[in-house]
Design goal:
The protein is an alpha+beta fold. 14% of the residues lie in helices and 23% in strands.
């Protein structure tokens, strides 16, 4: 089973295939904004994926459109509610804090 390491805390948790990064981060006890209940409508769960990007699903149109509206988006940006674990490799993400969404 792959793991997800959550920065800046460094907490590492097991990641079930098919789960979203939002579900995994929340189940770890870490706090993350998620205003739209995982529908890619708000952008508040914007994170950076530093390692293991091939271990999560590709960016879909809805997620890409939402990312286009967020300040500070880069090549490592994902919405935690849309990135699903593929089960192929370990992943390292960075929580961005209060200013990552709307």
């Amino acid at each position: 089973m792959p793991t997800v390491t959550i920065m800046p805390s460094g907490k590492t948790v097991d990641a079930a295939e098919g789960a979203t990064l939002l579900q995994i981060i929340m189940s770890s006890g870490e706090e993350i904004n998620h205003k739209c209940d995982g529908k890619a409508e708000c952008g508040s769960c914007h994170i950076f994926v530093h390692e293991g990007r091939k271990g999560i699903s590709k960016v879909a149109r809805e997620e890409n459109e939402r990312l286009d509206t967020i300040v500070g988006v880069g090549s490592k940006s994902r919405l935690a509610c849309q990135a699903k674990i593929l089960g192929t490799e370990n992943i390292k993400v960075e929580l961005l804090g209060f200013s990552s969404g709307f």
